[in-house]
Amino acid sequence: MHEDDLDRAEEDYFSSLTIAEADGDDRAVEAALRPKTLDELIGQQRVREQLGLVLEAARQRERAPDHVLLSGPPGLGKTTLAMIIAAEMSAPLRITSGPAITHAGDLAAILSGLNEGEVLFVDEIHRMSRPAEEMLYLAMEDFRVDVVIGKGPGATAIPIDLPPFTLVGATTRAGLLPGPLRDRFGFTGHLELYDPADLELIVRRSAGLLDVTLKDDGAAEIAGRSRGTPRIANRLLRRVRDYAQVKADGTVTQQIAEKALDLYEVDPLGLDRLDLAVLDALCRRFGGGPVGISTLAVAVGEERETVEEVAEPFLVRTGFLARTPRGRVATPAAWEHLGLPVPANAEAAAWSRDTLWDEA
Length: 360
Ligand SMILES: Nc1ncnc2c1ncn2[C@@H]1O[C@H](COP(=O)(O)OP(=O)(O)O)[C@@H](O)[C@H]1O
Ligand SMILES: [Mg+2]
Known about the structure:
5-stranded parallel β-sheet; binds magnesium ion; 9 strands; alpha/beta; globular; binds adenosine-5'-diphosphate; two-stranded antiparallel sheet; single chain
């Protein structure tokens, strides 16, 4: 798969969840903004350090690094990291995705075409078909595939040896992967939502690359509304740039950023349509919970996975939603954010405001 197609697939997945629809120009810009080395990558200190060690050790041994699994919500840098891994190893990168591998034969073709030391990136690896998954176990562990020739009782499996390669898998949640597959990765990097300070650095870096004049308070405003996600931060920067260019002298100040983001209906804390729908359902329809995630997902007309992997991490992080053994619960801050009176007897009241992530 070409990088453009990949970005398009990501956009399709993501555009329904965010206000700013991307056009072709935006995709090109996004590719241009990707950090190219681990040093250029902002934030994710832990993963950066851990992965840096894995790669350095492999370089010293002159071997392909262990297989790497990257997990985390969309837009946090999984694809970027896969590209960085290949770049840091000076190795070619092949890109495919779980949904694109519908038959084991598709995977066999990709694997048998790999050259020594190559990096194979499988995005959304949790969505691969079962037979392909089993083929991958063998390829990861023994660097071998069994190619089946023929059909029915006459079919024979021909083993093909593979050169050492590095598999980089990306998934929105490591927990979705079957254990045997997860266990075959030598290193798993969990990407966390970014804090505002890191997002501010990302916005400033992007502004530099895009030649946007950006004041510090403008960067802070954009960072604060990016729901912990670099992809959103970069997208908001581009929308604010448009506004600054058309309505002012092109300089992005806090005031300009605020006006632009209000115009694009970006929530002051960055909550998107799905986030707000989840909170709204939780408070108005279920009295603040506790309610099961599946019920909540049905109420907002989304897949359970989407609510769990896209909306929930951010809502938990901002202190609007809590996971309890009995289900999801709205915190008092959630009621306040929706402009609703906080119910006195709500289970939610147990959650103190002190536990909130102080973003503003
Ligand atoms: N740590 C980071 N520093 C700077 N920019 C980042 C970082 N992580 C992600 N980005 C930017 O965010 C965009 C989305 O990242 P991507 O790797 O496509 O996310 P994912 O694959 O996890 O959905 C990229 O275009 C990249 O420019
Ligand atoms: Mg990606």
